[in-house]
Sequence to fold (458 residues):
Amino acid sequence: MKLWGGRFSKQTAGLVDEFHASIELDQKLYKYDIIGSIAHARMLAGQGIITEAESGQIINCLNEILADIENGEIEFSVELEDIHMNIEKILIDRIGDVGKKLHTARSRNDQVAVDIRLYLRDNILTIKALIKELIAALVELADKNIDTIMPGYTHLQRAQPVTLGYHFLAYAQMFIRDYERLTDCYDRMNCSPLGAGALAGTTYETDRHFVADELGFAGVCLHGMDAVSDRDFIIEFISAAAVCMMHLSRFCEELIIWSTSEFNFIEMDDAYSTGSSIMPQKKNPDLAELIRGKTGRVYGNLFNILTIMKALPLAYNKDMQEDKLPLFDTVDTVSNSITVFIDMITTMQINKKSMSQAAKTGFMNATDAADYLVKKGLPFRECHAVIGRIVLYCLNKQVAIEDLSLAELKEFSDKFEEDFYQNITIEACVNAKKSAGSTSQSSMVEMVKRTRAKLISM
Fold:
């Protein structure tokens, strides 16, 4: 007989048991279910709803069950549907009628809600720690590559020279925002739903604040129906995770391109590359490609949970049992992707010579050439047009701007002087930037300093 089966005259069909059950997924919540139950048992005793002796017996048995699960000594039953009913059944089998008192003043609805919040709270902290480790790695790489000049791109076309450190630090800022999004998500979901009951509360004189304190929550969910019937905290987490994966995917896309022989900017370490089953010469950036692919998986999880929740009337509906697959998969995917990514970027080889040579082609000093004329007194739009005509002239002659003689330059504008050449070297173009947040060495030193300070405060 099911623990809820008193109202029923027939057993559920075997197929229904299998279809109805979530134990294969939600058994991952066993630790949180037991932690929540222990806090609930303490509260019941504190309020005089059960005796201290009964509470102690329940708590001792729950701790024994936890140890047995972790030692692999317990096999869960599909017939008992979920982790909550499995643990409660084991408890009752071991200590009899006292075990039946544990479920006083609570429902599986608030029970599963607290389990998920406890699980997600722990995993957000784990993912935040990984993101912080990633940011620290990027800051170190940025600091080591302040002088490593490379092409900066727009539209995947060479645009202006920057440094590799500058490029790395751009991603560090993105991951800082990912960290902050997870912090916001954590703060919003860090309230206890336990004690809300099925939807309307309970007739017992419970102490929800005691339970919240026991479980380390910042407080209780104010409204009982809301506490058990929404999963917006899961949606928010997966949304933040999807943004983080998007940033990883963009970075991976660049690493994949940079590792081609056409670019030859980087080479992945052998330990983080794979080969071909037919082409012996191949060295493939498969891990970067996998992270890029797994981004779509997290996007799918977000759409999954949004679709599950989109038309559910209040309060709890069985549809919400399906929230765990997208949640668990997202946690695992994001954690594993960040871990692999950190190892991948900290072991890759950087080909500084190829980057520097690439930065010297494609008229990447054209903007600085226009700025030179601005400083000589010409309006910027006129300067833009002059340099555009010079670029066209150089393309026809297959030379660079700096290869032109001063006499050739003066055919386009009499503002050109000998000092022009020293102003349009790639190094000068990088370091001439004066605005805050620019690619100049002085700006980079300041941004590295501030990002390190931000890491300390995180």
Q: What stands out?
A: The chain has three domains: 12-104, 109-357, 360-451. Residues 245 and 411 are 52 Å apart (CA to CA). The domain at 360-451 is CATH 1.10.40.30 (Ribonucleotide Reductase Protein R1; domain 1).
